[in-house]
Amino acid sequence: MNLTLYGYASEWIAVDCGMMIRQDLPDAPLQVPNLETPRRLGITPRALFITHGHEDHIGAAAWLWPHWQCPIYATPLAAGLLRLKFAEHGLAADVIRVIEPGEALAAGPFTLRYLPLPHSIPESCALLIAAGRYRTLHTGDWKLDPEPLAGPTFDPERFRALAPVDLVVGDSTNAPVAGHSASEGDVARALAETLGECRGRVVVSCFASNVARIVAVARAAQKTGRRISLMGRSMERMVGVARGLGYLEELPPLVPVHDLGYLPPEEVVVIATGSQGEPRAALTRLAQGRHPHLALAAGDSVIFSAKAIPGNERPIERLKTRLGQLGVTLFDEFSRPSLHATGHPARDELTTLYRWVRPRHLLPVHGEALHQRAHRELAEGLGISAPLSPLNGDMLRFDTEGLHREARSPQPPCIVSQNAVVAHPGLDGSTARHPRRGSLYLALPVTATDTGWARIGRLMLENTGASSLDEDSFSDWLDEQLYAIAADTLAELRQALRPRLLAWLGERMQHLPEIHLQIMAAEAPSPG
């Protein structure tokens, strides 16, 4: 959820404040960062700085800001999206301050400069954070795209001028991937070619925040003589804000959804939400024949211009099966890999940036354990000290001796429920009749396999005030259960694992603790 706190001389700032969708829980509720640890430590940031406008970087701001009451600094697009969120919560938006990419500002002992880098949303920026004698580059999400379509490309000289920096807090998402990521310009050309092959109606599904992809569809539609319509509230919101800032000048006048039925099929292209199989999204409604204004049929095409997020494979496959039953032609990352480009740097891009800024130390963030491990190995090969991979709740110190882990605090999940942020309940949902002693927090990263589910990376277990537990036996037992459980979604997996977990712990622990289970989608290592 990308909430990072930086402290110096008893002053603190926050960078980003995102949320995640809990696919393993019924109704897929929202989870936001837990503020108990900073509250216990007396940490209240004097300002919140936003690197870019993706939901996993801004989504929790309206929920958590009332606890901080501090200024929020964001580039124009992220600020526009935040203002909409604040308005929905009835919060005054005057605390949201616009800062242009490239500008600098001060907050207490901190001086920050916004440094633009391409990503899959415009105005994504790295932050150069200076405090005392230390200079840290917080990269945010980025890539080195020579043709980003929406927003400027990167400026190598701007980053060379920073060298050397003391510490990079860097994006690890694609650290295991060799080479260089594809450009959004390449995707635009692939979309135009694919759209030219289609004869009936075409639906292109992508992330609403990927403004560059919307530009690519606009170019492809113009080349093939098609008119564009939007489906999905988040898509309409993003286009409205981005258009107001001049990022979608290539987008022609849009066709209202309710007028699509009047156009010949070969003149229609719809940009829709739902590429991840979300049950309430526009594409799922089309696949189920429940959309009030458009019905897909044989001869139509659906283009998935987005990579499947780990853990969403099964709902996406069900969605594709329904579309196939309608006779719809499908194009996706498997049949046409060129239809999507990642927004994160591969190994060559990481190497290039680090040769520009010459960091002395690296703290790898984002991704799973295997991504951070690959990032550390790359850094050490370049002579950069990278001694540790952080976990949620870690308190780290950076000083003249380098990076150290000082403490680790458990981070019980906080769920948005009925417009309030609440602590996630224990597995049985009640502690009234069964007194608990201590707390056990279990974060279980899993991936879908051909036969079921498998654990990926490290088991994150925090046993606070509870009786001892043989972690090796527990891990072996968990792996057996994951292999044996038949479940299509993370929610079904959690529901099936819950009673088994209670029974196993009840037999082996003298006193059953308060149990908190979080199942997370993780990405399996690439072959070779």
Classify the oligomer: single chain
How many beta strands in the DSSP annotation?
Answer: 26
Number of discrete helical segments: 14
Q: Could you tell me how far the N terminus lies from the C terminus, measured between alpha carbons in angstroms?
A: 30 Å
Largest sheet: 6 strands, mixed
Provide the structure class. alpha/beta
How does this model look, in words?
The structure is a single chain. The protein is an alpha/beta fold. Helix content is 29%, strand content 23%. It contains 14 helices and 26 strands. The chain has helices at 36-40, 55-58, 61-68, 76-88, 156-160, 184-197, 211-224, 233-244, 282-287, 313-325, 347-357, 369-381, 471-484, 490-508; strands at residues 4-8, 11-15, 20-21, 30-32, 48-49, 72-74, 96-98, 104-107, 110-116, 125-131, 134-138, 167-171, 202-205, 227-231, 268-272, 301-304, 329-331, 361-365, 394-399, 402-408, 414-417, 420-423, 439-448, 453-455, 460-464, 514-521. A 6-stranded mixed beta sheet has the order 8-9-10-11-12-18, covered by helices on one side. Strands 1-2-5-6-7 form a 5-stranded mixed beta sheet, with helices on one face. The protein has a 5-stranded parallel beta sheet with strand order 14-15-13-16-17, with helices on both faces. Strand 6, helix 4 and strand 7 form a beta-alpha-beta unit. Helix 6 (184-197) runs parallel beside helix 7 (211-224). The protein is globular, with a radius of gyration of 24 Å.
